[in-house]
Structure formats: C-alpha cells, structure tokens
Design brief:
By secondary structure, this protein is an alpha/beta fold. The chain has seven helices and nine strands. The chain has a single domain, classed as Vaccinia Virus protein VP39 (Rossmann fold, 3-Layer(aba) Sandwich). It binds S-adenosylmethionine.
C-alpha cells in the first residue's frame, strides 16, 4: 500500500511539473531526460515523433530543434496543434499514413526518430508486451530507411520476454544501443527506453528487423518445432478385406 502511495505521489509530481511548465503530458520529462543524458536531438534537426498524442514529446522536440529544425508527428489519435510541428493522424503501420509521412519529408532524410508508441492494452501482459515489441520492430522497419547516416533513434519498450532478442535485431543498425530508465518513468517499472545513436545503414542486414526478431523468438520459444501438417510416412501396409461368412474381416 505504501509503495503504491509513493508511486502515485511521484506520478502526480511529474504531472504537476508538466502542467506548471506548459507541457501537455508528464511524458515530456522522459524525452527531456533522454536528451540530457544522450544529447540525441540538435539544433536544426529534422525529427519524426511516433505515437505523438497528446503532444508532450512534440513540444519538447520543437524546443530542441529550434527555428531551423522541423518536427513531424504521427498518432492514431488526432492531436491538438503544436506550434512548429506538423502532426498527422493515422496508423504508422498503414501504407496510406506512411505515404503521408513520406510526402511531409519531401525526400529529406531525418536526423532523429523518437517513438513513445504503445498499443492498446488488453490486460493480458504477455500478449500486450509481445504486440508492443512487434509494433516497435514495424516502426523501425518503416522509419530506419528514412534516417540519415549517423542519426539517432529512441523508443519505449515494455520489459519482458523478447526485449533482448529485439535489441539484438536492432544492434547492427547503430554503433551504440543502450537501455535507459528516465527518472520520470521509474515509477512505471515495466517500461524502459532504448536509445540508439550513430545510424550505420551500410551494416544493416537484408532481412527486416521484424523477421529477425520473430526468428529469434521462434528459436527462444521453440515455435518452429511444430509442423503444420506432418508428411505421411510411406508404408507398405495395406488393408485387405476378405469376406467371411457374410461379413468383412480386416488384416
Ligand atoms: C504514451 S502515448 C504517447 C505520448 C506522447 N509521447 C506525449 O508525450 O504526448 C502512446 C501513443 O502511441 C499511439 N499509438 C499506438 N499505436 C499506434 C500506431 N499504430 N500508429 C500511431 N500511433 C500509435 C497511441 O495512440 C498513443 O497516443
């Protein structure tokens, strides 16, 4: 009970700070703390904010990139405007939304991708966590080809089975891949941020991150041990029927 009270108190404290400083969500402090530690975004950068609603990270990103920079955000939910950012509504895994992002980029490459994406929670932790990791893999497969050489990426992950496998699949794409728990999310022990720096597209394997992640998960969980339809084994065995006193006997 006491732990629960402390957690709620901390969460409220970040919420109060967010309100006092004009940020729409306490999550704004998570990106600020990632920035303090890793210096991910620079003045003049072009940033893609994935899962941007209600706009806390977009507000921070606009401050960080300054007047010469650009911020494009995307979320399933419509976001109230953030001055200095273009915020799109749509599913990032959907090809129509992806086309709209590409058209906003206008052929320019990104310096940084920040993703706080979290899918709808069903309450079944294992399933939620695996859906969330697969979504992150999909976000990376779509967005990494849009990231400049040397660029940075951060994403939220939910802790549990598969995190190590996803990190292994991401590692060839960057020279540095680190886990980080900002103070602002310490009360939510289930989440951790992956902070990737120095994009190395020339080292990227041909197979997608999702394919390599799923293959690693199959190996981990033994998912490939089961065949869908086992092949029949050839045999010389035959059923011959002989009529005996008006009935059939099987051999
Ligand atoms: C924790 S919130 C993001 C908070 C945001 N960073 C901020 O500071 O205001 C996660 C968001 O991910 C979005 N999301 C989940 N799946 C998505 C998808 N497939 N495409 C786009 N956004 C998605 C949700 O709608 C939700 O608003």
């Amino acid at each position: 009970m006491a732990d629960h009270w402390v957690e709620n108190h901390k969460r409220d404290s970040w919420r109060r700070q967010a309100k006092a400083s004009g940020y729409r969500a306490r999550s704004a402090f998570k990106l600020k703390q990632i920035q303090e530690r890793f210096n991910l975004v620079r003045d003049g950068d072009f940033v893609l904010d994935v899962g941007c609603h209600p706009g806390g990270w977009a507000q921070v990103a606009v401050e960080l990139v300054g007047e010469q920079g650009r911020v494009v955000g995307v979320d399933l939910q419509p976001c109230a405007p953030v001055e200095g950012a273009v915020l799109l509504t749509g599913d990032i895994t959907d090809s129509i939304t992806q086309e709209r992002i590409l058209s906003e980029l206008g052929g320019e490459l990104l310096n940084v991708i920040v993703s706080d994406i979290s899918p709808d929670i069903t309450g079944k932790w294992d399933m939620d966590q695996s859906v969330a990791l697969t979504l992150v893999a999909d976000v990376m497969d779509f967005s990494l080809p849009l990231l400049r050489k040397g660029g940075g990426f951060t994403t939220k992950l939910f802790q549990g089975v598969g995190v190590d496998e996803l990190i292994q699949a991401v590692q060839p794409h960057f020279s540095s891949v680190r886990r980080f728990s900002p103070d602002a999310s310490r009360n939510s022990s289930s989440e951790v941020y992956l902070v990737c720096k120095h994009h190395t597209p020339w080292k990227a394997p041909k197979a997608t991150i999702r394919a390599r992640f799923e293959e690693a998960m199959d190996q981990l969980l033994g998912g490939n041990d089961l065949e869908d339809e086992p092949e029949p084994t050839p045999s010389s065995f035959q059923v011959r029927r002989r009529k005996v006193a008006g009935e059939f006997e099987e051999h």
